[in-house]
């Protein structure tokens, strides 16, 4: 979507002088797509792209007796194409995105003023100002061009951290409860892996739409990017810059279990968007466990360097322990 917004922005610049109303329309479209797709994670242009297949894999582990509590542990199974802009700039890609957001706003304001002046036939009085503003847009044009050219490539990423790390923990939990002697009494566990997370959490949305009535009272934990080496596990209290809150009860359950295991955790707003977003938008009890890099050198998100050799297993092991403790505690209470 970033490439689409950059193209629309550039078209708006080209049309600036001779088709100012049309230029304004393209600038507004660029801004709306940018804001909705990237900042709000709302799909508004998907209908214009071809549909492709994906899948979710759901493992249901039934208890010995009647199900009293449902726990869902999930992760996403897809990885992304490489983002060259991230490999080259690391966290600097955020600056590129932020600058382009600002430039789009500036362009809209300028075009609104320009069309207003044209409407009242007084544009000539502000011609020098317009020239200076347009020169500013031309000088800053490399920012949207960088986003257009380097935001994504056709090189697939292995995705060891994002998100084979989460799937590995899910696998170990499923393997543990597959042993008959480890069968729970009254807690039913679903181990979910979702497809198409990287293009808008489509897998988890499809899962929710299909199973909403069954999971309304479930406690849901999503595991994402657990392979960083920085010690504290991160528990999301909100996503999308604080606009969507994660479930406080599940957060407290994770916090208590981590404390009992002497595992260091940190509860904070998550910058990245996880599958928990899909659940919390439906008022379901969910949050995510993740980790963060110790330095920019470890920031391999969506790059060819997201490989097994760059994984650290401490947070993965701790996430496994916390999830197991939560399930066992809930089973005792049931």
Structure in words:
There is one protein chain. The protein has 334 residues and is of the alpha/beta class. It has two domains: 2-45 and 86-150, no CATH class; 52-81 and 155-333, Aminopeptidase (3-Layer(aba) Sandwich). It is built from eleven helices and eight strands. It has helices at residues 2-14, 20-39, 84-89, 92-119, 127-139, 142-150, 160-178, 202-215, 248-260, 276-280, 314-333, and strands at 57-61, 69-76, 187-194, 219-223, 233-239, 244-245, 265-269, 285-290. Strands 1, 2, 3, 4, 5, 6, 7 and 8 form an eight-stranded mixed β-sheet that branches. A hairpin with a 4-residue loop joins strand 5 and strand 6. The radius of gyration is 23 Å and the shape is elongated. It starts with a helix and ends with a helix. The mean pLDDT is 92.
What is the percentage of strand-forming residues?
Answer: 5-15%
Number of strands: 8
Structural class: alpha/beta
Overall geometry comes to elongated
Order of helices and strands: HHEEHHHHHEHEEEHEHEH
Distance separating the two termini: 46 Å
- Count of individual helical segments: 11
Q: Rounded to an integer, what's the Rg over CA atoms?
A: 23 Å
In short:
This protein is an alpha/beta fold and 334 residues long. Helices cover 48% and strands 14% of the residues. The chain has 2 domains: 2-45 and 86-150, no CATH class; 52-81 and 155-333, Aminopeptidase (3-Layer(aba) Sandwich), CATH 3.40.630.
């Amino acid at each position: 979507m970033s490439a689409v917004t950059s193209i629309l922005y550039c078209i708006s610049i080209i049309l600036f002088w001779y088709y100012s109303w049309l230029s304004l329309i393209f600038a507004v479209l660029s801004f709306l797509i940018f804001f909705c797709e990237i900042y709000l994670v709302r799909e508004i242009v998907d209908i214009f792209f071809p549909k492709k297949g994906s899948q979710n894999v759901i493992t249901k582990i039934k208890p010995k007796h009647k199900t009293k509590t449902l726990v869902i542990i999930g992760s996403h199974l897809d990885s992304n194409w490489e983002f060259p802009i991230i490999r080259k700039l690391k966290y600097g890609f955020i600056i590129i995105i932020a600058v382009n957001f600002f430039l789009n706003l500036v362009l809209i304001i300028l075009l609104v003023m320009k069309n207003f002046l044209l409407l009242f036939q007084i544009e000539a009085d502000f011609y020098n100002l317009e020239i200076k503003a347009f020169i500013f847009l031309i000088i800053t044009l490399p920012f949207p061009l960088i986003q257009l050219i380097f935001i994504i490539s056709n090189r697939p990423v292995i995705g060891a951290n994002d998100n084979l790390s989460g799937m590995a923990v899910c696998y170990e939990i499923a393997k543990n409860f597959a042993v008959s002697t480890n069968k729970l009494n009254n807690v039913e566990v679903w181990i979910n892996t979702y497809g198409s997370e990287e293009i808008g959490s489509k897998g988890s949305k499809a899962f929710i739409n299909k199973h909403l009535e069954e999971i309304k009272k479930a406690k849901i934990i999503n595991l994402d990017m657990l392979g960083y080496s920085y010690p504290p596990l991160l528990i999301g209290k909100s996503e999308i810059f604080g606009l969507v809150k994660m479930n406080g009860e599940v957060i407290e359950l994770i916090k208590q279990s981590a404390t009992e295991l002497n595992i260091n955790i940190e509860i904070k707003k998550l910058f990245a968007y996880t599958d928990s977003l899909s659940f919390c938008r439906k008022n379901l009890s969910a949050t995510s466990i993740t980790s963060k890099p110790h330095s920019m050198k470890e920031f391999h998100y969506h790059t060819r360097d997201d490989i097994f050799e760059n994984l650290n297993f401490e947070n993965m092991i701790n996430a496994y322990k916390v999830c197991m403790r939560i399930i066992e505690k809930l089973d005792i209470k049931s």
